[in-house]
Amino acid sequence: METIYIFGHKKPDTDSVCSSISLSYLKNQLGLNTVPKVLGHVNKESKFALDYFGIEEPEFLNDVKVQVKNMNYKESIMISEMSSINDAFKVMQKEGVTGVPVVDENQKFKGVATLKDIAKILINGDKNDLNTNLKNICSSLDGEIVLKFDDEIKGKILVGSYQSSTFSNDINLTSNDILIVGDRYKVLDYAINCKVKLLVLVGNYDLQSDLLEKAKKNKINIIKTKFDTYHTVNNILQANYIKTITENKSSISVLDTLYRGQFLELIEKYGHTNYAVVDKFNKCLGAISINDANQYDKLKVMLVDHNGFSQSVEGIEEAIIEEVVDHHNLLNIGTPQPINFRSMPVGCTCTIIYHLFLENNIKIPKNIAGIMLSAILSDTLLLKSSTTTDLDRKVVEELALIAEVNPFEYGHDMVKAGFSIKGRKVEELLEEDIKTFRIKEKMVGISQIFTMDYEDIAADIDNFIDKVDDLASSKFDFVIVLITDIEKNGSYVFYDRKSEYLVKDIFNNEEFIEGFYIQDLLSRKKDVVPYVMEVLEK
């Protein structure tokens, strides 16, 4: 069964993390195979909730881009470097490929043998050298072992085609020679006396008993084949180890984690037809060709707590979005086919997921109820945010009963654990929970920092504003920062200095200055984003 990844937005908050886990649990109960993921560092508040209810933190998901491992490459197509050229050719014929990866005894990649390489060796290569074993020779010659004293056969190939006297007088045989010969008693006797490495008897010739006994005594390897001399000479070269072709050849392999786009660039650069697929340990997994680049499986995903490309995982355009569960305004996620899209104007995604449990008649376990409760309390600022609905309040009551906690005592402890900013860098605070929006060709960043320690920022306000300016100049056209004081139920508003005129327009206040406090401004989504969009779209 295919795995479906479920995740929230970049810079994950408690709703994003807990929604991923809760929806994954629900979907798995309904028979799917889903895995919750996160797209960034899990903050202290989320970690508090997960630890409190004994739930493991989801693993990080870097991207959902198509990789070589998602392509329809030919798995397990490879050949041992100790196999013959003939064996490699048979594999290519059987699999319909023009190249095959060559591996050692540990399946480590050693090179790629191609039809072009084989043709070049058989046509233009050295016709005299043989480096292989008896098994490969028998296979290439469709032969039979008569005597065997060595596994490995390495030497010069000679043909006993001269007259007997000429051969013995002019040819100086050694123990490194491989002689192809037929019914020629004197030549055979001379070869056996010279203790050649191997005798290849053509035409299924049976050696006379006296020569056979002498061959045994001299430990001569002997093979007989049904082929005549001509076909034996041609075929025996195909018995060479395939490594004799690849060991001095530069071959390119591709990691199974290589992105499809990178693979296409590699093809364009080198122009090869076939490549070996390897893992990070250089273990060969199979072979991939140019045509395989157009046959691939996209990763399947479900999105929670967001529905915009800019807020989602890298490569989301290359994935198949199966479902979206969200409580934000609709952005620019588009799909080529209809999907399940569940959106409700509530304070938290987990409020929606709670109703999905009810609709599917799935019981919510205590620990899942606990993290769903945590998400709602976090996103609604303990039910004080302007985004809070009666539905959120009712769900909090129900989940608190299942989780067996006092929601407000637990919620206060969670917020206190998560929102302390003491000792943290300004840059880290600004980017921890920042949402990105593209409005009228402008890239807008709206960051929100929840805290009970505003005085720490106020003590060095000029430095804080400088960092906001730096953030804007590096990534955005316009930045607004809300420092939300949870106990006071309001927010201090900051912005990059060059955008002061926009902020005054957004809040309809000509006296607006950095750090202006607005009571009951708690929701970025409801109290800020709509007004930013209205001003920038004018």
Describe this entry's structure for a reader:
- By secondary structure, the protein is α/β, with parallel strands linked by helices.
- It folds into four domains: 156 residues, inorganic pyrophosphatase (n-terminal core) (Alpha-Beta Complex); 106 residues, CBS-domain; 84 residues, HprK N-terminal domain-like (Udp-n-acetylmuramoylalanyl-d-glutamate--2,6- Diaminopimelate Ligase, Chain: A, domain 1); 111 residues, DHHA2 domain (Diaminopimelate Epimerase, Chain A, domain 1, Roll).
- 37% of the residues lie in helices and 22% in strands.
- The chain has 21 helices and 24 strands.
- The strands form five sheets. Strands 3-2-1-17-18-19 form a six-stranded parallel sheet. The protein has a six-stranded mixed sheet with strand order 8-10-11-12-13-9, with helices on both faces. A five-stranded mixed sheet has the order 20-21-22-23-24.
- Strand 10, helix 6 and strand 11 form a beta-alpha-beta unit.
- Helix 2 crosses helix 15.
- The two termini are 50 Å apart.
- The relative contact order is 0.12.
- The model has no long low-confidence stretch (mean pLDDT 90).
Q: Would you spell out the secondary-structure blueprint of this structure?
A:
Elements: E1 4-7, H1 14-29, E2 34-38, H2 44-52, E3 59-60, E4 74-75, E5 79-80, H3 85-95, E6 99-103, E7 109-114, H4 115-124, E8 129-133, H5 134-141, E9 144-147, E10 152-159, H6 164-170, E11 177-181, H7 185-193, E12 198-201, H8 209-217, E13 221-224, H9 229-236, H10 243-246, E14 253-255, H11 260-270, E15 274-278, E16 284-289, E17 300-304, E18 320-326, E19 340-343, H12 349-359, H13 366-379, H14 390-403, H15 407-418, H16 426-432, E20 434-439, E21 442-451, H17 454-458, H18 461-475, E22 478-485, E23 490-495, H19 500-506, E24 516-519, H20 524-527, H21 529-536
Parallel strand pairs: 1-2, 1-17, 2-3, 5-6, 10-11, 11-12, 12-13, 14-15, 17-18, 18-19, 21-22
Antiparallel strand pairs: 4-16, 6-7, 8-10, 9-13, 15-16, 20-21, 22-23, 23-24
